[in-house]
Design brief:
By secondary structure, the protein is α+β, with helices and mostly antiparallel strands. It contains 16 helices and 26 strands. Helix 1 crosses helix 2, helix 1 runs antiparallel to helix 3 and helix 14 packs parallel to helix 16.
Length: 540
């Protein structure tokens, strides 16, 4: 029937969950998922069960934002107990796997002394046998790597624990993802057990612009009668505003918040690090999913942190992405899971891996991968890449993301390869969280506090940032990826004041740029710029 055809509302959130915890990249790869269950989830649940009121008070303290505290009041203790019991049951093998990794690290530390490792394979915990290779580096330091592709084919990859909670959102505030499980007792959420690679999700999200049958999508999504009334509220018969594809003679960039930039010419569209706001009334002007083209030619991913590759966003865009460019990685290192393997298992079969200085070419545009320093706490992580975009041989854009220029010689060499640029996008979150905030569950032993806090997840400070400006001579400089948009609170938990180091450092950089007659701005909310051949013209 004609009146059965509806559109999916623009403020429907599909929150991806793994065993009721928000699914970020380290909960997809089997090895990092196992380590986070043991080293993060169980610890947080034990802490809440022991002292729920401490958690309730801690989440009210701005100084403790992003800490290991559940964003619930103190009356959810029994539900958390039930979740813990379910976790111990559903993930018993993954917990055993994680404990075996810890045992393997101790084995290598005590028994791998420089002699052949052949006999050590017999001592590898049984659960890990056949999934790891033991080796020394050239300094005779022992280590191991996973055959990560085998892990995805094993019992340790558990898409049956993937699900999605759908609900309508009217404001920016959401619980922080790393420390707050989603307890299934809300009356405004439809929770569906469904693997993230399901093609049904593509059919659902096409309905944001193309009408579809409600009865058909309800059946395909497996919606029972008990959820029908609520699920129906996620749809509307009102047609959305038709998207007008950019067809100008110049090049347009749109800032969607954080490190998400849409670059468009008449012939190509490129979207970096997609993290998109939903559409609802707000005093902060922003671009939303409604402002994305029907087809995105290339998505470029700079690195594998949750504020740069957000599964929640990616599954909504999957049906419209032609190609995804990611940093090449096949090392099998625990701390550095493969983005390509992750995306393949999430239903993306259009992933292009590139090495440093590899170039993807298309008519009128090239995208070149560049070395990326910093932001990873001195861990051996290869899955990181800046991008140099050149359009129509006229406009040269450097998307530097969270790069930390602590070795300027690297960028001296890069400048000799790509030359001067027109536009620099640079992150200057120069405080950064300590190593343990993100990678703590992967460490076999906790670092002493002073060492942990010396190894930061940080971008460039003023000295490092202005060196890039001097070196590449851009006409326009934009500070981005600062985590200040309120719709990022659930993945960033950052709040600055005028006395915060990143604000002071970026203010100083902007001032020096302006003194050099360089157009410079710290981005927030939204920004649109149309570039002509000789100068940038701002359109609001």
């Amino acid at each position: 029937m004609k009146n059965d055809f509806v559109y999916l509302k623009r403020n429907v959130v599909p929150e991806p969950l793994f065993d009721q915890w928000y699914a970020w990249p380290h909960l997809i790869s089997p090895a990092t998922a196992a380590m986070n269950i043991l080293g993060r989830h169980i610890k947080i649940m034990n802490s809440y069960i022991l002292a729920p009121q401490i958690h309730a008070e801690a989440v009210k303290d701005p100084k403790l934002l992003g800490g290991p505290f559940m964003d619930y009041d103190g009356n959810r203790k029994e539900e958390v107990k039930q979740l813990k019991e379910a976790t111990l049951t559903n993930n018993s093998r993954l917990i055993e796997f994680a404990k075996a990794v810890q045992q393997l690290c101790k084995l290598l530390k005590t028994e791998a002394t420089g002699a052949s490792m052949q006999e050590l394979y017999e001592k590898v915990p049984d659960i890990l046998k056949g999934y790891v290779e033991l080796f020394y580096d050239v300094n005779n330091q022992p280590s191991f790597r996973f055959f990560e592709s085998l892990l995805y084919k094993s019992e340790f990859y558990k898409p049956e624990l993937q699900s999605i909670s759908f609900y309508l959102i009217e404001e920016d505030d959401r619980p922080f993802i790393l420390s707050t499980p989603r307890l299934q007792t809300t009356t405004d959420t439809v929770h569906i057990r469904m693997p993230f690679n399901s093609p049904v999700l593509d059919e659902l999200f096409r309905m944001q612009r193309e009408p579809g049958s409600y009865s058909y999508i309800k059946e395909k999504m497996g919606i029972g009668e008990e959820d029908d009334a609520l699920f129906r509220t996620f749809f509307t018969t009102d047609a959305p505003e038709v998207y007008a594809k950019y067809d100008g003679d110049y090049i347009r960039t749109r800032y969607f918040g954080h490190a998400c930039i849409l670059i468009e010419s008449k012939n190509v569209s490129i979207l970096s690090d997609p993290v998109i706001s939903y559409g609802y009334n707000s005093h902060i002007s922003r671009f939303t999913y409604s402002d994305l083209p029907d087809v995105i030619d290339y998505v470029v991913i700079t690195h594998n942190h949750q504020d740069h590759i957000l599964i929640e966003t990616m599954i909504q865009l999957r049906h419209k992405i032609r190609h995804i460019i990611v940093p090449r990685n096949g090392t099998g290192a625990l701390q550095d899971p493969s983005v390509k393997m992750m995306l393949n298992n999430l239903g993306f079969h259009n992933v292009i891996e590139i090495d440093e200085l590899d170039t993807v070419e298309m008519p009128g545009c090239t995208i070149t991968g560049l070395p990326f320093l910093g932001e990873h706490s001195d861990l051996d992580i290869r899955t990181k890449m800046c991008h140099h975009v050149r359009l129509d041989n006229e406009l040269s854009i450097l998307l530097a993301a969270d790069s930390c220029n602590h070795e300027p010689k690297v960028y001296e060499h890069i400048q000799q390869v790509i030359g001067d640029i027109d536009v620099l996008f640079l992150g200057m979150e120069c405080d950064g969280a300590p190593l343990s905030w993100l990678y703590g569950p992967l460490l076999p032993e906790a670092l002493p506090k002073e060492k942990d806090h010396s190894r930061r997840l940080r971008g460039s400070n003023f000295k490092e940032g202005i060196d890039l400006v001097y070196r590449f001579k851009p006409k326009d400089v934009y500070v981005y990826a600062m985590g200040q948009e309120p719709w990022l609170n659930y993945i960033m938990s950052l709040k600055y004041t005028e006395e915060s180091s990143p604000i002071i450092a970026s203010n100083k950089l902007l001032q020096v740029c302006k003194e050099m007659q360089i157009n410079a701005e710290r981005l927030f909310g939204e920004k649109e710029i149309v570039y002509k051949k000789e100068a940038s013209i701002l359109s609001v």
